[in-house]
Specification:
Elements: E1 7-13, H1 20-34, E2 38-44, H2 51-61, E3 65-69, H3 76-86, E4 91-94, H4 106-114, E5 119-123, E6 130-132, H5 136-152, E7 164-167, H6 168-171, H7 183-190, E8 196-200, E9 202-204, H8 215-235, H9 239-271, H10 276-299, E10 306-308, H11 313-342, H12 346-369, E11 372-374
Parallel strand pairs: 1-2, 1-4, 2-3, 5-8, 6-9
Antiparallel strand pairs: 4-7, 5-7, 10-11
Helix pairs in contact: 5-8, 7-8, 9-10, 10-11, 11-12
Bound molecules: guanosine-5'-diphosphate and magnesium ion (MG).
Guanosine-5'-diphosphate (GDP) binds next to strand 1, strand 2 and helix 3.
């Protein structure tokens, strides 16, 4: 029982007699295929069918399978957090019992953690991912929930996924308030992490039993988003807060760029005798250089355990330069189409253009120019059991 495993796969269950034996079997075969030493922890909320009996029978034969039956405060998120507390490893992976999440991907999550990421999210919304057999209503609801979550965590395409892996240290001291279905959001909002990675997967709807999504769950979710926002403002030291900090720095640098642009345009035209359009081109370039320098050393300064994906400052500059030129073109495109085709007053079109381009520019640069990755630990620092 006290063996330290390489990973704990937590399966929350409520009335899963049709799926539980097969999912345990599938998780165990993905362990043996990849050579991972893992345990399986089923966390059940007093299922009224045979789920508990079935798991107890399996655990008599398989030493790495355990079940916890909870008697109070039932709920999916609460069960997952209980699983975290009872796990015998430093790495937790949560997976549904109903085969909505493919267990054969477990080794991919494991690899991403070994690369140095602290959280790995199974995503339906990155390339290679998808959703099978979902009615339109559920798709729309899920997209709404995902959109809301992405405002808090722009780096994560599927912040409400139920399929994820997380290192123990991320959640150990986090003041989690588990409720509803979206425990991952709670972890992202209140846990301590710098580096996240996503694994694409295709979500397939349950084959046996029925789903428990309801209006109550949607309202709980909205409340949870507000709660995480409030937490971020109170604590001022979580990933949401850091994102806001970066965004406001980026905005501040953008304003300094305007000052550089205007100043240079004036000086070059008045004192150096440049034709004003030539002067403007030079002024734009100077403001791009100004913005790059401040963003590089201030806005996007990486935390200690991460390093820039583009190691050379020159490459980061080239990337920033291209994004800036594209921004100019997009801004002009918006100004032109809103004013010429839709008859919007040109100052309003311009303002909309600036807003759109500001956010576009921020997110593209954040994810392209200043993309971060875990430090390359070097071979000596990796111990043999990391390879298992
Ligand atoms: N322990 C526990 N597990 C739950 C509860 N509700 C759902 N589950 C489990 O959580 C997983 C996802 O639930 P499901 O109803 O399929 O959600 P959906 O796929 O979003 O419709 C399944 O493994 C369920 O058995 C609950 O209240 N407690
Ligand atoms: Mg399901």
């Amino acid at each position: 029982m006290n063996t330290e495993y390489g990973i704990t796969v937590i399966i929350p269950t409520f009335n899963e007699e049709n799926n539980i034996a097969s999912i345990i079997h599938a998780v165990n075969s993905s362990f043996s295929k990849s050579g991972i030493s893992g345990e399986i922890l089923v966390v059940d909320d007093e299922s009224r069918d045979e789920t508990i009996e079935i798991v107890r029978n399996i655990s008599r034969k398989c030493g790495n399978v355990r079940i916890i039956v909870r008697h109070e405060d039932h709920g999916l998120s609460q069960s997952v957090v209980e699983g975290f507390k009872q796990a015998n490893s430093e790495l937790f992976l949560v997976i549904d019992a109903d085969f909505s999440h493919p267990p054969e991907l477990i080794p991919r999550f494991y690899e991403e953690i070994k690369k140095g990421h602290e959280v790995v999210v199974g995503s339906r919304y990155i390339r290679g991912g998808g959703i099978r057999q979902w009615p339109l209503k559920r798709r729309v609801l899920s997209l709404g929930a995902t959109g809301l979550g992405r405002i808090l965590f722009p780096e994560v395409t599927d912040p409400v996924s139920g399929f994820f892996a997380v290192k123990k240290e991320v959640v150990e001291r986090a003041p989690l308030k588990p409720r509803g279905y979206k425990i991952l959001m709670e972890i992202l909002g209140k846990g301590r992490w710098d580096s996240i990675s996503e694994v694409p997967f295709t979500f397939s709807d349950r084959k046996g039993g029925e789903s428990k999504l309801s209006l109550k769950i949607i309202l709980e979710y909205i409340e949870q988003v507000l709660n995480i926002t409030k937490y971020s403002i109170d604590v001022r030291d979580n990933s949401v807060w850091n994102e806001w900090k970066r965004l406001s720095r980026f905005c501040f640098v953008g304003l300094s760029g305007i000052a550089v642009n205007m100043g240079a345009l004036y000086l070059l035209t008045e004192y150096s005798g440049f034709y004003f359009l030539t002067a403007s081109a030079v002024a734009i370039e100077l403001s791009i250089i100004n913005n790059f320098i401040w963003n590089d050393i201030w806005t996007f300064k990486p935390p200690e355990n991460l390093s820039p994906h583009r190691e050379s400052r020159f490459h980061r500059f080239l990337s920033f330069q291209c994004v800036s030129i594209a921004s100019l073109l997009i801004n002009m495109g918006i100004l032109y189409s809103l004013t010429d085709f839709l008859g919007v007053y040109y100052m309003i079109s311009n303002f909309i253009g600036i807003l759109v381009v500001f956010f576009w520019n921020y997110f593209v640069n954040r994810n392209l120019t200043w993309k971060l990755q875990p430090f390359d630990r070097g071979c000596e620092e990796i111990s043999p059991e990391d390879f298992n």
